[in-house]
Structure to design on (342 residues):
């Protein structure tokens, strides 16, 4: 694992299709002759910024423009992946990142899910070499498309040698109920554990604490994306804490999705995680929407949320230990690199 001495950031929860440059999307839309209901780039850029009152549904609405622009377009996927890595270096200062996306959302007439993954990995690998950023990929299953789960697992295993490190469940959980968990997802996450494929699950963002319990104890999640609602149920919170599960905290997006009320930043769940010694990291989620890459996110955590430098540095160490890295040697190398750079 080659690491740049100039970079020491690490991020575990960032959506590739939520990190695109608005001007690139605007340019690609014109190239593909996709008509947008916006008169100029600035107006287009504003459509990605959710307005208060916030909700997860509003937060995700901007993806209605991203998907048709990228879907089935190999050149666009490669370009977007390469620009993502460049921004990871210069806007986030990352030496290691695990990006994620749902390949089945970006298929087209001439591209199936595997071709989408191939194009994305091509772009990531090219730019990673140039910018000296260790880049890995997590494949998402959309919770409303459980029929894709089997193929996602197969592709994750096939492309593990090429940088795919795990699987995820993503999508709007605003209307979560215990009955919603599709049998296909249970089966595939059981198999993933057997095969040694790493697992993270979005839960407890718009859904209740019970969704976090489901992610950890039924889907065998090693990490939970967001998970703030777990604090609503002390019993579940203690069970999950004792299990050593890692929470991928995304502070700015937690406000913009309505998961954390905008006027309670000083009482953000991350403060409880810190005081309890809960395993967590700090992440951006979707810079296209939040307007913040990791450098800005950490500055926000310090100035607005009141996190100490010590807490932020602990989150980095936690992230290294929770990263989907199978090589003990590589993990130690990364941890030593991050510690030396602090």
């Amino acid at each position: 694992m080659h690491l740049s001495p100039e970079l020491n950031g690490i991020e575990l929860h960032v959506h590739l299709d939520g990190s695109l440059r608005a001007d690139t999307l605007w340019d690609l839309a014109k190239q593909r002759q996709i008509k947008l209901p916006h008169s100029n780039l600035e107006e287009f850029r504003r459509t990605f910024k959710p307005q208060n009152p916030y909700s997860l549904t509003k937060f995700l609405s901007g993806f209605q423009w991203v998907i048709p622009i990228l879907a089935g377009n190999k050149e666009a996927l490669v370009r977007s992946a390469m620009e993502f890595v460049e921004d990871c270096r210069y806007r986030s200062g990352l030496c290691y990142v695990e990006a994620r996306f749902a390949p089945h959302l970006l298929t087209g007439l001439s591209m199936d899910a595997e071709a989408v993954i191939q194009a994305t990995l091509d772009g990531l690998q090219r730019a990673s070499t140039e910018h000296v950023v260790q880049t890995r990929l997590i494949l998402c299953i959309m919770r409303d498309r459980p029929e894709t789960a089997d193929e996602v697992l197969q592709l994750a295993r096939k492309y593990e040698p090429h940088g795919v490190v795990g699987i995820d469940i993503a999508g709007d959980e605003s209307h979560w109920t215990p009955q919603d968990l599709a049998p296909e997802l249970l089966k595939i996450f059981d198999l993933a554990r057997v095969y040694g494929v790493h697992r993270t699950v979005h839960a407890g963002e718009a859904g209740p604490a019970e969704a976090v319990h489901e992610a950890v104890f039924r889907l065998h999640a090693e990490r939970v994306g967001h998970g703030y609602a777990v604090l609503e149920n002390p019993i579940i919170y203690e069970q999950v804490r004792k299990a050593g599960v890692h929470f991928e905290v995304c502070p700015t997006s937690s406000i913009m999705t309505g998961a954390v009320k905008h006027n309670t930043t000083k009482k953000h769940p991350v403060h409880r995680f810190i005081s309890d010694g809960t395993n967590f990291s700090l992440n951006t989620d979707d810079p296209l929407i939040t307007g913040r890459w990791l450098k800005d996110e950490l500055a926000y955590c310090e100035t607005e949320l009141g996190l100490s430098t010590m807490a932020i540095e602990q989150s980095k160490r936690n992230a290294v230990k929770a990263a989907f890295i199978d090589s003990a040697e590589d993990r130690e190398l990364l941890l030593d690199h991050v510690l030396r750079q602090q």
Observations:
- The chain has one domain: 17-327.
- The mean pLDDT is 95.
- The domain at 17-327 is CATH 3.20.20.140 (TIM Barrel).
- The first helix runs from residue 22 to 31.
